[in-house]
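Quick start: read one record
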Amino acid sequence: MKEETEMTFETFKVVFAKLVDQSGYSDAEVARRLDVNRSTIGRWKSGEQSPALSKIKEIAALFNVNPMVFVDEGQVKSPFVVNETKASYDVVPVKGKSHKAPLYGSIAAGQPLEMITVEDYIEIPESLAEKHPNAFLLRVNGDSMNKIIPNGAYALIDPKEEINNGDIAAVSVDGFDATLKRFFRLQNTVALEPDSFNPDHIAKLYGSEEASTLKVIGKMIWYMSPYNVKY
């Protein structure tokens, strides 16, 4: 699988360098428009580094091309593009009628929900509970998604909701506790991408064999801050 991943990155390098050259933009101007450092543009053009999966849509829009030009169609079924219809992850105050959803501190692959100890029951808006009757809450630990969800927040997960590329999903890797990441399913690869201000967090690619160790637990549809949170 490593060979296929490198081929995709090689395709991006060649196409990106050609588009920059044909556009007439300087590297500095491209960097400004994409809100990245100028040195990053150089690394993308040389193949030393590849952009975050969700960044490819911005690059395609800048050069007015289809995102598929950056990938090998023989290897990738769909581009690394976040769906146009994005879920709203805004914090919604619990007002009016509410419903209590179970809070699980952690959940690992293969664990039936009915066998996991419920830490607490937390009130969520009744409208959410009616639309997502099977949803449950997970506590967010860490900063790998802190552009969207702060550390310590409660993420509402629906195990029945369809997950599209770019959605935030709870995924268990190798049977360990679930992690929240942006989820991308490609023809022979699954990508889990953080959305963080911390540059130490990077996207991870799983080939066809490695992907068998992943279990998608559910889609994040909403989140809230704990009542005792301190800012």
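The chain has two domains: 2-70, 98-224.
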